[in-house]
């Protein structure tokens, strides 16, 4: 099937869904999914996300966090890693030059930025420029209006604090203020509360990829523009996507948007845009962002989960109407950067403003505007759409549930329901991993129709679109899992499938290859403990789902495991409402974590599995006012505070769990399988039998679980022991445990791995990976 035909079928599917012909739409989706496998990665991803967007539109499936969360599992700079590099750079540099010109020689400055992330380095550049052209003390106010990007950290506030420190170096009196604005209603509230400190204050307004949000609420743009004009800014700069994705005809802008994002996804795959350090592929983050944007673009009106874009011509007419005149500028700073760092992209001047293009397709525009004092303010009396304005505020993220309420699913549409299930799961995994700093969560499925033979083992395959990478360095692990299936009983996921319930394994990295085909990869990526939950979707009885959560490598105490597992299960129970059943428990039940975690004490370092037969599968006393959501003054609910409250509620449940809940809920109907660890004759120092017993003997008797008291061997490892347990939360360094069998020798700028048993040499640079080392161990004569 050709790409154009595939797009036509997607449009036809959208038409059938809009017309209510779900059976026909389901058949089309089935055909699209099958044909999509033969296309290139950019096309496959794009088709997959548009199909998901259509299903989300049908069932109203949207997460409560309106913007994709910044992964909390990787310690990096969100202002450079989170936004798509070409868009981020174009927005940064094209707003810098006109702001420089407007602030030259000024001593009292106020920048109001409506954006997604604060660009630390561009403000440092601005500090340097204004001190060069000004004499005497400088006062610099920055008000940032933007969305919540994390459930556990305030990245914007941290950047404002860093900027305060940098401003001190230039003897600048800096004041930073942060206002939370997740939706168009929040932007209106924030704008209406903005004030001018004095008549001699120079105000610059910057919009970076947020102006289009005003399209989603009737009267919003008029209210905001009228307020900003009253403040008499020196200049207002707007950076937006240059696309006509709006209007009443879904099918029209559905097709147009597909062509637009085809260019973006082609760039994601083919252009060398990863300017990151440490080899981390930021493309994973960018794809997450555009995936959400596409879903919001296809979403229906009447919800805050919508995205609409317009061309420069549209905004020019509207801005003129409300008293702003266009101001010409050329982005000198961006010109050199684009030519050197992004050769696939180019910019051109069109209608006196810069436009970013790729393959001659316009993607973004940047424009500068000045208030026209001769024109009266025509929007101050404009009324907001009060019904939708109220709905926006009702949908603030202060609810413990992750998902918005969905409508009833169609029982006969398997392909539609399968996509819906994956979408729901992905949203739950994103929230869960961010709240608990879990590096990774996988989704496995098993179709019962494939195993009609009696006693045949069921198999699990991964659903990549329903997996969540909270640590983007784990991308390779997900790719490895996607190449092979798991059998029933293998790993934590296979055990959960086998036991029809929940399964926890504190040391998946100690399993044999037969018990877990991806064990070598756990060494390479520093993964240790995993907990899996089996779920059933009431609309798809033939499919079993298993959610596998990997716990942070630094959490090794049994008490830490209890807190995390209790928190994860609590989130699942709150969100598995209409469509899901967690096998082995009712959604209202509390789970006894003492009975789940069967091995207390620290997880010791162990040698790798002996069996290699199956091969290698691999802060300042600042003046920063955190108005991050002054509810009394602004009427805006702080999502960060709300999330903290939610996490606080969960922590109270954690304490209950860690103090020992002595009974399982009556409806815990399935035996929880606890991984038996290998036993050895020698007992390591500091460990006793009681450390490894199940905490409740009555629980063991009632459920026929025999407590084992395994003794783990702790070997003295020669050579460079720094290779072991190198994974930490700050550094995120990972070294495979295979290195205990090799000496690392450095010389002449080269690194060699020399086998301790037979002295065979291999190149040992990190870029070469450890696959060859694993393979060598399989056949090493000296080791045998």
The CATH architecture of the largest domain comes to 2-Layer Sandwich
Q: Helix tally?
A: 24
What overall form do the CA principal axes indicate? globular
Give the biggest sheet: 9 strands, mixed
Domain BED-type: 733-784
GO molecular function: DNA binding; DNA-binding transcription factor activity; zinc ion binding
InterPro entries: NLP (IPR045012), NLP1-9_GAF (IPR055081), TF_GRAS (IPR005202), Znf_BED (IPR003656), Znf_C2H2_sf (IPR036236)
Keywords: Metal-binding, Nucleus, Transcription, Transcription regulation, Zinc, Zinc-finger
Structural account:
38% of the residues lie in helices and 16% in strands. With 784 residues, it is of the alpha+beta class. It folds into four domains: 132 residues, no CATH class; 261 residues, Rossmann fold (3-Layer(aba) Sandwich); 268 residues, Beta-Lactamase; 44 residues, no CATH class. The strands form three sheets. Strands 1, 2, 3, 4, 5, 6, 7, 8 and 9 form a nine-stranded mixed beta sheet that branches. A hairpin with a 2-residue loop joins strand 19 and strand 20. Helix 5 packs parallel to helix 6. The longest helix is centred in the middle third of the chain and has 23 residues. The radius of gyration is 28 Å and the shape is globular.
